[in-house]
Amino acid sequence: MATMIDSLVTFPRHQRATVASIDWDRLAVPEARRLRELGFDEGVGVEVLHRARLGSGPIACRIGRMTVALRRTVAAAISVSVRS
């Protein structure tokens, strides 16, 4: 059974997750387009690798074999669930 987590911002590091939903309305058009181009969509596996020490810095995550840096505002629009 999957447990819902608020967003990538609060998701624990080095734990695999599945993108449960993306709030596309919270994102600017270029940000949403970039996420889609990178392969972010519901059902895709993701893992948080690193967070900047400053509270507003980027979050590095792995999607597929890519490592991607996301702004916290973008990561906050991505809801994930724990992979079983």
From TrEMBL:
Superkingdom in the source lineage: Bacteria
Annotated Ferrous iron transporter FeoA-like domain residues: 6-82
Keywords per UniProt: Iron
InterPro entries, alphabetized: Fe-transptr_FeoA-like, FeoA_core_dom, Transcriptional_repressor_C
Name of the molecule in the record: FeoA family protein
Species whose genome carries this gene: Sphingomonas aurea
Native organism taxonomy: Bacteria, Pseudomonadati, Pseudomonadota, Alphaproteobacteria, Sphingomonadales
